[in-house]
Design brief:
The chain is an alpha+beta fold. The protein has one domain: Tgt2/MlaC (Nuclear Transport Factor 2, Chain: A), CATH 3.10.450.710. The protein has 10 helices and 6 strands. Helix 7 packs across helix 8. It is globular.
């Protein structure tokens, strides 16, 4: 496997690549006999009208639609973003976060320490973890260089509550990166939201839990909440 990117770099990098499909010179391909027509539909709709058409009952359609919508807005606001990169936080907050189950992800990061925390501590962590994700994803959006993304064919959703939307990032002059974007079904609403991404076999959630789990155990959840709060408040910069 190519080592141009370390696992630590690759996990956040390819997460953003998934969301960036179809826009700003990028192309997507469905690995089947039928080519996706989503880009053409996007071009015919305004960002505002499209926002109401995201199908959360189908995780495969949802991921591809959100990907397109997010970077369509990125392209539309590129001149303002160059002046104020923190606009990327607004785009992530408004276009991505409605489709991410950040509470479930936050609880997974807390892991076995969950029962040792109070409701107040958990609520504070979830709120900060959401802001931390927003800042992390926004910073990722400064890294793109027109990579192509392939979406694998849909699989049956029958009786499933967790599925993986499989994709492949085409990396020029490097090995391609296989990614599984994990989404979970809400049994009450039958809607799906993303909660994890697995890049080349490495889970973003597992990595974050390994990074923070020991700190939570030794210094407590409020300490980690404070650490993530500081990181979430950092400005977005183009490097």
């Amino acid at each position: 496997m190519n080592k141009f990117l370390s696992i630590t770099q690759k996990v956040p990098f390819v997460l953003g690549v998934i969301f960036s499909a179809n826009v700003v010179g990028m192309e997507t391909t469905v690995l089947s006999s039928q080519q996706t027509t989503l880009p053409q539909k996007i071009n015919e709709l305004s960002v505002g009208s499209l926002a109401m058409e995201v199908d959360k009952k189908n995780p495969y359609v949802m991921i591809e639609t959100v990907a397109t919508l997010t970077f369509k807005r990125f392209a539309n606001e590129s001149s303002q973003i160059k002046i104020n990169p923190n606009i990327l936080k607004d785009i992530v907050r408004e276009e991505l976060m409605p489709y991410i189950n950040y509470k479930y992800s936050a609880y997974k990061v807390i892991g076995v320490q969950l029962k040792k925390t109070s409701r107040e501590e958990r609520d504070a962590f979830v709120s900060v973890f959401r802001d931390y994700l927003i800042t992390s994803y926004a910073q990722v959006f400064t890294l793109y260089d027109n990579q192509d993304v392939e979406f694998f064919p849909e699989q049956s959703l029958a009786d499933k509550t967790i599925v993986a939307v499989n994709t492949r990032v085409i990396m020029p002059n490097r090995d391609d990166i296989d990614i599984a974007f994990k989404v979970r079904k809400n049994r009450k609403t039958n809607e799906w939201k993303a909660f994890d991404m697995v890049a080349e076999g490495v889970s973003l959630l597992d990595s974050k839990q390994a990074e923070l789990g020991g700190v939570i155990r030794q210094q407590g959840l409020p300490h980690v909440t404070a650490l993530l709060k500081e990181k979430s408040q950092r400005d977005i910069v183009f490097k």
